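Issue 218. Parser rejects a valid record. Input:
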Amino acid sequence: MVRLLEKPKKKKSIFLRLAFVVVFIYVAVVFLNQQITIAQKKQEYQQLSAQLEEQKALNAELRELSENEDLAAYYELIARGTLNYAYPGEKVYVDISGN
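Output the parser choked on:
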């Protein structure tokens, strides 16, 4: 009968196990940090996209006013929107609900 020679089992080093655990924890922390950064950047992107859409709408409105060459309407828009002017005797209502 042929006997297979069994190699003596080598004990795994505690240092090797500890190094593996440390590397695993490092990779997990880096991964979680990247996920948090990605989520923050997505939120920032959404805010910037909303600002971009608002600016595009304003640009379109100003472009339309400039193409019509209706300076009186443009001045009225500036006076009402930026300077909060109103015509004499006109009642202005302000929405304070924030909606």
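Fixed in the parser; the record now loads. The chain has a mean pLDDT of 85.
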